[in-house]
Amino acid sequence: MYVTAIMNIWKNNPPFQVENGQLFYKKTHARVIINADEQLHIIKMTHCGSDSSIEALRFLSSYKSYFWYHMSDDVRDFIMRCDSCQRVNSTSLKVFNQIGVDIMTLSEVDGFKYVVVGIDYFTKWSEARPIKDKSAVTVAWFLYDEIICRHGCPKIQISDQGREFVNKLNDELFRLTGTKHRHIIRKLQSVLQDNVLQWPYILQGVLPGVLFAHRTAQHSSTGYMPFKMLYQRDATVVYADCS
Question: Could you give the strand order of the β-sheet that contains 156-159, starting from the edge strand earlier in sequence?
Fold first, then answer.
């Protein structure tokens, strides 16, 4: 058998390991080795088993559970050949290569009227900051501090805000290539508004916790937490003992 032969060759050669009769690739974490006969089946199963099949395929190619050589190339080739995938707007195959940026209006707290949010389209990871105005300079400093200095400079900036983003300062930061409309911040806005109504004087204190909750919640389009997609591990969460 193919798998048996491979196990005999590599079972004593890291990063390949055998556990319970299954061959794993274990460079950083264990991934099941998939033989040639099963590779297309895994791709098709992932493609058909998700509400957002193209994002699921991208996640398969970047992560986590399976391994075979040239997996990313095989997934990319499948996407290019798939009629339904080509009919939808494509997003990036890389972490923080394509982001969405928008501004939410909330109840004013200590002069802060808005929250600017940036979301990575691949992992759904979000960054946010309360701001007092929607000027280009204010938004650009958010992009520089929270996106570029933490995650690198994205190739594409996508905006819903019009003139706040289409300006010379942001053009220089991102070399803007186009805009699309997304509405993936509505849930964040709802949670933030609820918290501001309950604790109207601590917007900046509430925001990190709201972001952490979003980052560690399973996203409907990928089936995974943004935290896990970005860091390739589960978040360590401390729960209070209420007993």
Answer: 126-131, 112-120, 98-109, 156-159
- What pLDDT, in 10s, does the model give residues 91-146? 566 788 888 888 888 888 889 989 888 888 888 888 999 999 988 778 888 888 88
Q: 3-state DSSP call for residue 27?
A: coil
Both tokens assigned to 4: 């048996």
Tokens of 25: 């690739």
Q: How many helices and strands (H and E) does the chain possess?
A: 11, 8
Judge if 117 and 166 occupy the same domain. Answer: yes
Task: Pick the last residue of a domain from 49, 67, 88.
Answer: 88
- 217 close to 149: Cβ distance less than 8 angstroms: no
Using a cut of 0.90, tell me whether the model's pTM lies above it.
Answer: no
Residue 220, H or E segment: none
pLDDT tens profile 179-219: 333 444 455 556 565 555 454 445 566 677 778 887 888 87
35 and 114 co-located in one domain: no
* CA distances from residue 171 to 50, 131, 142, 151, 174 in whole angstroms, order as listed: 35, 21, 14, 18, 5
Which residue type sits at 179? T
